[in-house]
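Researcher: Quick test of sequence recovery. C-alpha cells follow.
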C-alpha cells in the first residue's frame, strides 16, 4: 500500500470543477452579509404539492414498504407511468418490460453507459451539457465525442458535421431536450433523423427528458413517438422538476425491452430500488399530473416573462425560452462567461452560472435560473440596469 492515496484514473480523467471559484466567491459574499440573489440553482424553490406529500405520509405507515423495494419498481407505479405516457405522448408502453422506475434520472443516466459501452467505444455527448453524460461515458471506459450545440439550429447538434469514422465507432448518443442549459428544443423530425442514424450506424440514443413537462408553448415530444424508436432509444424522465420533487429521488426510464432490461441489470448490481412509499407518492403525482402541473408551469412563465422582458428593455439580446426554467443569455461583447458572472456577482450581488461550466461551447453564454420569485427577478434586472458594460 503506497503511503499516499492516489485516486483512480477514471476520477483523474474528469474535467476540473469549474464552478469552484464562483462557489467560493458566492459563499464569501453570503458570509459578508451581502443581499445575494441566487439565479444559479437548477432546483425548484417551491415545495412539493400537498397531495403528493399526503400520499407519502399515508404510505410511509405501511410496514410492508419498510423492506427492500422490488428492483424492477412497484407494479402500481409502472402501470401509472404507462397510463401517463399514453395520455401525454400517445405512446403505448408495456409496464412489465418497457418501464423502469429509477432513483431520480441522474443515477440512471450515469449507469446507462455501463449497459451499452465497451472500452474504446465512442459516446457522443452534447456541448454544453449536463455534466453526467460525459463523466458516465468515461466511467464506462468509453471515449466522449463532443457534439457542439449550434445556436442557429435551436441548440441541436449539427448531425451533418459528424464524420463517418465517428458514426462507425459510436455506441451511444446522449441528447437532452428540452435542453439544460440552453433551453433549446427538439421536434419530432429531429428525433426521426436521430433514430434513423442510430439504426443505420448501430448506436443507442439516451434522451434526457428531465424538463419535458416544464414548457410554455406546445408540449415537447417524446423520442418514443418516432415509429421504431424503441429499438434504439431510451428516454429518461424525472418527477424532480415536473412536480418540485428533486429531493425525493424518483424518475423512470422507458424504451425497448432489451435496452430497459440492460439498464435494470446494471441497477440490480448497484442499488436496491426506490423506497416503496416514495413510489406510491409518485403514483399520486402522475395520476394528478393534469391538475398539479399547470400552476407550476404558470409560475415559471410569469417569472420568465418578467426576466426576459426586463433584460430586453435594457437592450439585451435574450431569447425567450419555450421550455425549462433557464434563460441562456449571450455574453455582452468583450466578456467571456466567467468574466460576466464574476462581474454580476461582484457588482450586483447576482449569482449566475457561466456557460463554460457546461462545456467549452458554452463559454459565450451564461445561465439564469427562474427559481426565485418575480419581485426578486425584477430586482435583479434593476441591479443590472445600474451596471456599465
Ligand atoms: C435536474 C436534471 C436531471 C436530474 O434530475 P433527477 O433529480 O436526478 O431526476 C437530469 N438532467 C438534467 C438536464 C437536469 O437538469
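Model:
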Amino acid at each position: 500500500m503506497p503511503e499516499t492515496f492516489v485516486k483512480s484514473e477514471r476520477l483523474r480523467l474528469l474535467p476540473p470543477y469549474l464552478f469552484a471559484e464562483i462557489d467560493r466567491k458566492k459563499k464569501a459574499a453570503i458570509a459578508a452579509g451581502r443581499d445575494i440573489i441566487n439565479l444559479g440553482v437548477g432546483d425548484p424553490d417551491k415545495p412539493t404539492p400537498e397531495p403528493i406529500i399526503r400520499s407519502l405520509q399515508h404510505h410511509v405507515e405501511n410496514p410492508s414498504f419498510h423492506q427492500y423495494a422490488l428492483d424492477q419498481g412497484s407494479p402500481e407505479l409502472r402501470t401509472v407511468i404507462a397510463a401517463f405516457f399514453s395520455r401525454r405522448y400517445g405512446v403505448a408502453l408495456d409496464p412489465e418490460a418497457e418501464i423502469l422506475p429509477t432513483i431520480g434520472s441522474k443515477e440512471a443516466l450515469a449507469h446507462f453507459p455501463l449497459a451499452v459501452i465497451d472500452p474504446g467505444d465512442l459516446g457522443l455527448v452534447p456541448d454544453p451539457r449536463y455534466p453526467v453524460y460525459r463523466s458516465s461515458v468515461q466511467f464506462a471506459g468509453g471515449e466522449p465525442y463532443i457534439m457542439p450545440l449550434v445556436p442557429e439550429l435551436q441548440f441541436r447538434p449539427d448531425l451533418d458535421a459528424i464524420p463517418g469514422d465517428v458514426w462507425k465507432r459510436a455506441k451511444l448518443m446522449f441528447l437532452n431536450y428540452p435542453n439544460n442549459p440552453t433551453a433549446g428544443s427538439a421536434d419530432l423530425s429531429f428525433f426521426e433523423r436521430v433514430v434513423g442514424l442510430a439504426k443505420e450506424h448501430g448506436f443507442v440514443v439516451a434522451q434526457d427528458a428531465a424538463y419535458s413537462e416544464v414548457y410554455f408553448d406546445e408540449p415537447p415530444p417524446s423520442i418514443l413517438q418516432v415509429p421504431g424508436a424503441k429499438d434504439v432509444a431510451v428516454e429518461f424522465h424525472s418527477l424532480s422538476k415536473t412536480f418540485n420533487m428533486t429531493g425525493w429521488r424518483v424518475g423512470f426510464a422507458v424504451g425497448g425491452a432489451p435496452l430497459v432490461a440492460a439498464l435494470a441489470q446494471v441497477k440490480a448490481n448497484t442499488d436496491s430500488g426506490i423506497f416503496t412509499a416514495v413510489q406510491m407518492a409518485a403514483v399520486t403525482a402522475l395520476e394528478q399530473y393534469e391538475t398539479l402541473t399547470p400552476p407550476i408551469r404558470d409560475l415559471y412563465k410569469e417569472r420568465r416573462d418578467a426576466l426576459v422582458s426586463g433584460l430586453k428593455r435594457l437592450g439585451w439580446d435574450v431569447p425567450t425560452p419555450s421550455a425549462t426554467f433557464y434563460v441562456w443569455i449571450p455574453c455582452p461583447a468583450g466578456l467571456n462567461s466567467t468574466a460576466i458572472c464574476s462581474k454580476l456577482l461582484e457588482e450586483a450581488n447576482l449569482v449566475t452560472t457561466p456557460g463554460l461550466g457546461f462545456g467549452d461551447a458554452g463559454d459565450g453564454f451564461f445561465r439564469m435560473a427562474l427559481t426565485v420569485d418575480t419581485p426578486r427577478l425584477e430586482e435583479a434586472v434593476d441591479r443590472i440596469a445600474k451596471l456599465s458594460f
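The mean pLDDT is 96.
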